[in-house]
Design goal:
five-stranded antiparallel β-sheet, mainly beta, globular, 296 residues
Length: 296
């Protein structure tokens, strides 16, 4: 199962509100484009994003930092080929408006998008922290640390930097490879640790091919599968594995519901008989040999 692939960083565009435009040629049709937009205007601004030849846009996450303004993470899940003009409009005059982004190919799903404000982190190593999240094996966590007012360098403590800028706006895009365990993006600023920084992040997963497993199996069947008794899911004997999986699945069903959910009419319950699991998406799932997801 191939991971999503970094293509290139999208240039930064900035100017006076309400609208800012820039020209960009994607690396290929069907690739996914991600934009981080910032406005000094009012809180909770509804950005309008358009592209001359692209698919629709989605707001993945929005945050109003201390001191005002709006930061929004926007995606174009499947772009068209060829040169395009992208325009972002915060619908408020006389405020600075900037956006920059990144492009990936081979993206099937985009999940767990989050924006985190980090005020006055200081200049210690890894002092600027994003949200800790479990990243499944076969997926990537993509994070960007952004600050738009000063001259400095933002570096990452782990992962692979995919593009950065040390002039306004300052940013660093970093890619982390999932292994079924928690990852917390961490960044360091070279100066001005009294400012407010933004960490944007989201998980990219490849398209899920045809699998012999039926989607949304009952928990009692899924928990007995060898594919969920190995690796990080092997915490002891089979009963201990089952209990650990049940606890994680209940938390998932009551939250994002990406790989576990409740049967229709059941919510926030502790009854595992009401749980359904999308087995190939469970963190730590080990594909059986011979299926399309086992890498053979």
């Amino acid at each position: 199962m191939a991971l999503p692939v970094f293509v290139k960083v999208i240039p930064t565009w900035g100017g006076a509100s309400p609208a800012v435009s820039g020209s960009y040629t994607p690396g290929g049709a069907g690739n996914s484009l991600f934009f981080l937009a910032a406005s000094g205007g009012g809180n909770s601004i509804a950005f309008l994003m358009t592209g001359s030849a692209s698919s629709g846009f989605n707001d993945l996450a929005t945050l109003s930092p201390t001191g005002g303004g709006t930061r929004t993470l926007i995606d174009c899940p499947s772009c068209a080929a060829g040169a395009q003009t992208f325009t972002i409009n915060d619908q408020i005059a006389n405020f600075d408006n900037v956006f920059e982004g990144i492009e990936y190919s081979g993206v099937g799903t985009i999940t767990n998008a989050a924006l985190t404000n980090v005020a006055n982190p200081g200049t210690g190593v890894g002092a600027i922290l994003g949200a800790s999240i479990v990243v499944p094996t076969g997926s990537l966590l993509l994070a960007c640390c952004y600050e738009g007012t000063s001259a400095e360098t933002i570096t990452n403590t782990s992962g692979t930097s995919r593009g950065s800028s040390a002039s306004n706006p300052i940013y660093n895009w970093v890619e982390y490879t999932g292994a079924g365990s928690a990852i917390q993006p961490a960044f360091t600023t070279s100066a001005n640790g009294t400012l407010t920084y933004l960490v944007a992040q989201f998980i990219l997963s490849p398209p899920v091919g045809v699998h012999y497993l039926t989607k949304w199996l009952p928990f009692r069947w899924a928990a007995a599968m060898r594919s969920l008794q190995q690796g990080i899911n092997n915490v002891g004997n089979r009963q201990q594995n089952r209990l650990a999986l049940a606890a994680a699945a209940i938390t998932q069903a009551n939250g994002a519901a990406t790989w576990a959910k409740w049967r229709v009419g059941k919510t926030s319950t502790l009854d595992t008989n009401a749980l359904l699991l999308d087995v190939p998406l469970v963190p730590g799932f080990v594909p059986p040999v011979g299926t399309v997801d086992d890498g053979t």
